[in-house]
Write a structure and sequence with these properties.
2 domains, 5-stranded parallel sheet, 4-stranded antiparallel sheet, 18% strand, elongated
Amino acid sequence: MGSESPGAVRRVLGAAAVAAAVAAAATGCGAGPAPQSPPAAAPAVPPMDAPFEPANAEGGKTPPPQGVPAQAWAALENFLDVRTAAGAPLPEPAADPDCSLPGPGCTWDFGAETLVWSAGTGPRALRAEIYDRWKSSVRSLGWPVTSEYLFGGDYRTDFEKGSLIYVPRLGRIMDWNPAVEKAAVVIGDSQAGHDTWVGKGLASLGYTPVILGAGGTGYTQGNGTVDNYPSALETEQWLMPWGDPGLVVLQGGGNDAYGADNTQIRQNALQLIREVKRTYPRSRIVVVGVIGDGTGRRAEIDDLLGRVAAEQGLDFLSPRNWWKRYSLTSKLADGLHLSQAGHTAAAPVFARELGAVLKQGGD
């Protein structure tokens, strides 16, 4: 390609071909509704996808750069022409496509957007935030099957194995869960797995638990891999589901008994609650305190979280003395965590007491 930029050597499609491509794109592209024009404040222009056909061409309108498969180059050139014809051209790229991805696959960086191509899904445009997330999750998400499109006022991109949604209001990426209304989103610690008293109890009430957080974490504590609750949420170490969950449960505080003082716990709890309220302004939020025998530092933190919940107008469920009250001490595996038999015994207790809390304020 000599000294010319990668985009400068492309020839424009004929008028009839461009019109046909734009018309085809306007009817929709892959999964999801057809793209629409974004508001002026959007950081990236949702592109119009080129209609995808499995490429078998031996080349595009110009010779492909070194290392770029001919069929990838032909598809990428066509995509750029469709974008230009649709009035949303991409800027000149600083470098050639990178086709080192297995699959095979190529990426082409245009700054605010990156084109991603695979032989099976064709070229798609991802905004920078979504592209960065996809790079770290490509095995779980697969290849993109659409470019970004407007979805409920936000910006959605569909992949082979899921969807990601960029929410400008929050400045964050969220996960697509088609059954979010039946979900109970749980931010918690090791007490809050699917097979624990929290997960089992929620399931028995008809919710589908979406468990976030991790063992060893809390309002102020990280475990070396996952940060504390508010920091992990704000830095997207785990993704919140998009929409209005049926319930949000903030569980934990036991790990905060080791090191943090009440002032820091309170500050971080307020930080988390503010962000959860901002994320889910229409969902019911319940704070679940620290399970224990009703004494010591764990009970103190349970009391503290109860006061914070009351100040914030949230429901609070206290399990502070459940070990003693429901004869669970003998079912502790290590003095702090319930055995599987203990979780099985505590699950109906949690379901009954949470159900009573929810009934008090109405569904």
